[in-house]
Amino acid sequence: MHNANHIFNAIHASMRLWGSSLHHNGMSFFLATVPEGIQLYHGNARSDPIKEIGWMAFEPDHAMVFARPSRRQSPSKLQDEHLQHAMAPEDPPADDSGFLHTFVTAKELRLIYIDGTSAGKSQIGTLDSQDRILFNDTTLRGGVGMEDQRAKAVCRIAQTEWKGRIDGVIRMAAGFEIILCDPEVNLVPVQVTQVRHPGFTKGPHKDGKGKPKGKPGELLRAVTSRFHGIGGERVRVNYDHFVTAYYSYNLDLFPGDSRVPRLTHLASEQLQPIRDNLTHLVLTHNPNDRSVNWQAVADLIVEKYGRFLHGLLPRKHHLGDSDLREFIVTQIDRLMAPFIDVRSEDDEQAIKLCSTQFVPLPTDNSSLAHRTLYAVNHRICSTMMAVRKGTDLRTMVSTIRDLMGYLDWTAWKECRGYHDDEFCAIPIWPQGSRKDYHHPRPQKYDEAYQGENDYWGPVWD
Questions:
Q1: What InterPro entries does the record tag this protein with (predicted)?
Q2: What is the mean pLDDT of the chain?
């Protein structure tokens, strides 16, 4: 399966801030639901009820960023304040307080989840799948300044092309958000609280200009707590039915051997089949259709092989070539022992048993997720058997490294051994450095991202 590794990672990273920040250029659209009775939050400079379209956060700390007066800043100064429902009131409060609106969902919300860092206003590809596929190049090119147009386009498409079957979309930047259509119908108001964000009070700050240089520590605590999932089954993703640019469109998604996928170089006509399939997905499947949780199966595969593969190639060792080869073979022997019948030493049978430990053998009717996970698991098992039979150390090591490069699992970047007041700092839009991406390290919540912020490029106006 071409691109099975990328589809696997899209499934594994879905609704997880860690993987979606590292595999930030999403190429996939999933059906998703938020159950009835889930609390959502909206920050604004005003207490007025939100109407027609609302930006909803899952965490109050996320919405609090927007619960303060609009200062009518230029988009480049807004950072990640991407206009939670037109944050430009005519008469903002005289002080630095704002309003936090709390809601519960009035019914099960039917949504499209756009994967990756799909709310990141950068020019490195985070908005490609929306602007090129979903909106069919109808929004003018731009970042923060085009967010209202994107939201309106979402709700126009939901009502017309999708015949009212979808209530909005889920996106991610520094936390997950919903662009929700018809909030008056889809939400039940709980409380409107006048609040003052402690991160934006007057007084000296890190940059000496009256505002913190990085994200407030309490926001970082909230968003990084969702590194490995939104939690509480607040979002349910349907993995049996989704649309991805990685599958069956014969597109060059990595032009010039780009490290990340891009769509900007492709003609609109080349992307039309993906648009058509997304519309077909929405019109023929309900987001709440029963489906297999293939992400949980992907977790089993990563948990079994992630640390194992990483440990086969110690970064610092004092073994000679012969001893290192013996070490690798011994470790693989132990791993593969349950699948190898010593009476026959049938490699193909061993690979089949290994490949189907977590994933049944696919059939012609199997879902894309099923076939993808099997293909990746089969690649791992067959590689292990090939290395086990190897005699040349250099070839064995190269084969393992090639497998790890193919898999590109974000688990290999996780930090170890950090304190309670620290988190493993990777680039979280709009902050973070290239060093944070390639070599994440623990940073304190209240002192993070104080160095070079050169990963995402300037915030796209």
A1: YOR389W-like
A2: 89
Residue 388's domain comprises 295-413
Query: Is the residue at 20 inside a domain?
Result: yes
Q: What is the pLDDT of residues 303-345, one digit of tens each?
A: 999 999 999 987 656 667 788 899 999 999 999 999 999 998 8
Give the 3-state DSSP-derived string for 40-98, with helices as H, strands as E and coil as C.
EEEEECCCCCCCCEEEEECCHHHHHCCCCCCCCCCHHHHCCCCCCCCCCCCCCCCCCCE
User: Rounded to whole angstroms, how far apart are CA atoms 428 and 80?
Assistant: 10
pTM listed for this prediction: 0.91
**Residue 336 and residue 271 share a domain:** no
For residues 220 and 305, state if they share a domain.
no
In the chain, how many domains are there?
A: 2
317 class by beta-carbon count within 10 Å (0-12 exposed, 13-18 middle, 19+ buried): exposed
Cβ atoms of 449 and 215 closer than 8 Å: yes
SS3 for 102? strand
Convert the pLDDT of each residue in 415-432 to its tens digit.
Answer: 998 899 999 999 999 999
Q: How is 108-141 classified by DSSP, letter by letter?
A: PEEEEEE-SSTT---SSSTTHIIIIIISTT-SPS
CA 74, 77, 80, 81 dihedral sign is negative
Same domain membership, residue 307 and residue 269: no
